[in-house]
């Protein structure tokens, strides 16, 4: 059996409060191989914080602890900060939720892509520009020669997200963490972004962790799904079996998804139980 790319065991993320440390991610354990794993749940359930903890991006005064946190067999907990920084971006990349905040507003698209190729691939100026054009073309951006000279405020949200995907895939990472990569896009643009992402991830044999609120998207796009509630994983199942979920919280999430042709007398309300978070 092939060893997983990512191993997470007993991951906890806490923040200090007046009453002591408050955990926002509680004893989370899972693995990711060369597959597409979806993480779903309400806002505040710990999805994004889990992804950030893996990349050592939890802002202070947050505290991260884990029984095991390893990538490709390497223990991330004991890895020196400088070595972990080298791993981040080169072998593990993360697509952030809003490209308007993730992209540098005072640098052109081409300059930001070229910087990635120079840093991770040792490319010179000409090589970096050529590879930047190839990267934009790979994510299906029309007229990349024009786009490389534009600033982030001059492109649409959908194009900005494609640029982010191109930038994160530029170093040829083995694992990609995507935090709500299509949440601000309309359905047509979203479909195109996901098709491109699926095409690139599959072709490169990567692992993907997709954080999303969209259960239908995750069930169609991913192989496995982890359902988060109050910082814990309450259910794990094959994506194709999402509609057959057994946990009442997952069933409640599915019931809240509107369906064409389905008439409802009242809007469903999620039921919550404090015991689910223990």
Provide keyphrases for this structure.
single chain, 278 residues, alpha/beta, Rossmann fold, 2 domains
Fraction in beta strands? 15-25%
Main pleated sheet: 6 strands, mixed
Question: What structural class should be given to the helix and strand makeup?
Answer: alpha/beta
Number of helices: 10
Q: Please tally the β strands and state the result.
A: 11
Q: The CATH topology of the largest domain, please?
A: Rossmann fold
**Which series of helices and strands comes N to C?**
EEEHEEEHEHHHHHEHEHEEH
Percentage of residues assigned to helices: 25-40%
Description:
By secondary structure, the protein is of the alpha/beta class. Helices cover 36% and strands 24% of the residues. It has helices at residues 47-54, 81-90, 99-102, 109-121, 125-138, 144-147, 157-169, 187-204, 215-221, 248-255, and strands spanning 6-17, 20-32, 36-40, 63-65, 68-71, 74-75, 92-95, 175-179, 207-212, 224-229, 232-238. A six-stranded mixed beta sheet has the order 7-8-9-3-10-11, sandwiched between helices. Helix 4 (109-121) packs across helix 5. It is globular, with a radius of gyration of 20 Å. The two termini are 32 Å apart. The model has no long low-confidence stretch (mean pLDDT 88).
Brief overview:
With 278 residues, the chain is α/β, with parallel strands linked by helices. The protein has ten helices and eleven strands. It folds into two domains: 190 residues, P-loop containing nucleotide triphosphate hydrolases (Rossmann fold); 70 residues, no CATH class.
Helices and strands in order, then pairings?
Layout lengths: L5 E12 L2 E13 L3 E5 L6 H8 L8 E3 L2 E4 L2 E2 L5 H10 L1 E4 L3 H4 L6 H13 L3 H14 L5 H4 L9 H13 L5 E5 L7 H18 L2 E6 L2 H7 L2 E6 L2 E7 L9 H8 L23
Parallel strand pairs: 3-9, 3-10, 7-8, 8-9
Antiparallel strand pairs: 1-2, 1-4, 1-5, 5-6, 10-11
